[in-house]
Amino acid sequence: MLIDFLSPIDPDAIVNRQVMPKNFFGKNLSYFEDILPNLADIDIALIGLEADFETSEGNGCAAAPTAIRKQLYQLYNWQPRLRVADLGNIKQRESQEGTILALKEVVQELMKQNVLPIIIGGTHDFTFGQFQAYDEMGAMINALVVDEQIDLYDRENGLRSDSFLYHLLEYEPNFLSEFTIAGYQSFLTDPTMVDTLRKLNFDCHRLGSFRSKIQEFEPVVRNTHLFSLDVAAIAQNDAPGVENASPNGFQANEICRICRYAGMSDRLSSFGIYQYNPWFDREEQTAKVIAQMIWYFIDGFYSRKNEFPEFDDQNCVQYTVEFPEENYQLIFVKSKKSDRWWMRMPEDHASGPILVPCSYDDYVRACRRDIPDRWLKAYARLS
Known about the structure:
Blueprint: E1 6-7, H1 25-28, E2 30-31, E3 44-49, H2 64-72, E4 84-90, H3 96-112, E5 116-121, H4 127-132, E6 141-146, H5 164-169, E7 176-184, H6 191-199, E8 203-206, H7 217-222, E9 226-230, H8 252-264, E10 270-274, H9 285-301, E11 316-323, E12 328-335, E13 341-349, E14 352-358, H10 360-367, H11 373-382
Parallel strand pairs: 2-4, 3-4, 3-5, 5-10, 6-7, 6-9, 7-8, 9-10
Antiparallel strand pairs: 1-4, 11-12, 12-13, 13-14
């Protein structure tokens, strides 16, 4: 089935693997050249989108997969058990809708085979195909979009990179449990859009909320299933390869750290990097940043702890913070395996207590008798 939607690549046409050191990624990946690799031997699959329906076909973002591959293949692999395959590119259809459907089918099939797809290329609206892949999975999901603005513009003009969130949030059947947008820049974002999302109890995080404390991003991504990133969220100085790049944004080292957090998320099952346009790049700098983002994501994936703490788990420590004036208490759980933190919510369901990812800073804040924002937002969602 996958072969109906994918076109193979010739990696030697991108880089000369014959002269590569043996530890380069290009030497250690499996490839779809003539036949598809055995999915049972793969943990992660690289999928290219040579599609761009907002500029001239074959130009712009359509050139992104090759540019990114060129840089990724030349990075050193440190994983002794690397099981990553490059499965080529989604076959270009005549319409945007057809290509989105093809992306949906590929991502869905890979997830069913327990393979995590990394999607590179195309404009940000292809997130909709990544999202639709969860339609038949039979479970509610959490989605995270990293972007410099909130793409709720020009609804009447159909599915575009600046309006795709309408389609995602209004999709039926509704299997979206939580939605988070992170990294938006206030001067690029209509405040009514932030108000709209917050009224729906969705999370919105400004870029400034992570300044000087990028580690606070880790709890944001920990329970995420779908991760979608617009390269425009990265500062222009570090990633100029975007049509409307902003001088502000995440720095290269910050976005790489975020990608490692995403890879470490035990629940994350699809990862997309969109909107890179080599036309606007400078000395392939953005392609290099994206390749390093993928490197960090893979590094995080192979650092997963596969932990879902329970209160009677010997691998966890429980802390209780009393609020005597309110006659209430907050319960925190810390993992001995990873030093990560969770908060217990007051509503207990049939499946057990609800644990919300948090950070040590949230615990410290509670100890000062200040209820953490993460707790308040989670409580509002559950109420």
